[in-house]
Write a structure and sequence with these properties.
alpha+beta, single chain, 8 helices, elongated, four-stranded antiparallel beta sheet
Amino acid sequence: MTISRFHIAAMDCAAEEQLVRMALSDVHGINRIQIDSDRRDVVIDHQSTSDTINASLQSLGLGARHIDDTSEIGPGHESDRERKALIVALVINAGFFIGELTVGLLSGSMGLVADSLDMGADASVYALSLAAVGTVAARKKQLARASGYLQLGLATVGLIEVIRRFVVDVELPDPTSMIVLSSLALVGNIITLVVLHRVRSGEVHLQASWIFTANDIKVNALVITAAIGVALTDSAVPDLLAGAVIFLVVANGARRILSLTR
């Protein structure tokens, strides 16, 4: 048995942590995986070779490198606590996905619609983590592939709608609705991370870190900034630009998932 530590330089969000776990699911001889999101380190208890694991991690393009071999790994996870935390995270993100999507469509804000898709993408990661517990790698990849295609399809439709709104005159989105919903989503993201933070120790499918918070805050802040821009310029362009950026982020995340499940 060997315990090896790897550093994943670009592991910045929950979806990328899930990609790491999926990549390692194809490597034989892995007993346990522990992820330190703050340090972006992955500690692996394995019977394979460090070079084999390193090659799998490097295939993700996230800047993985083998640091050293150690003799320590944290205690095993508490599955009940993990499941409960994931369920809370799933409910919060799914709820805001529906809420932001509804208000975004009613208020005419593509920024809110895109933000809702970002929340939906997070919810799909949590749902995937729950569904994958105790399942074989092949089943996990099937679930991930379905999630990836759904996210990519929605992001594509969103980008097409953004382009259409650039060409065709549309009513201005409601900046107040954008600010209120994005602020509430920000609070939801923080609550999610606080809940997940409690199960960070040990091997969990989705460990929270304040690195993850930064990405969600940036998305929420972008929509709030766009709302202010709409109010100041009396133009829908800031909202459309924010929507386009977020749709592209979601599409890129879906692309990574699909590339790993081939």
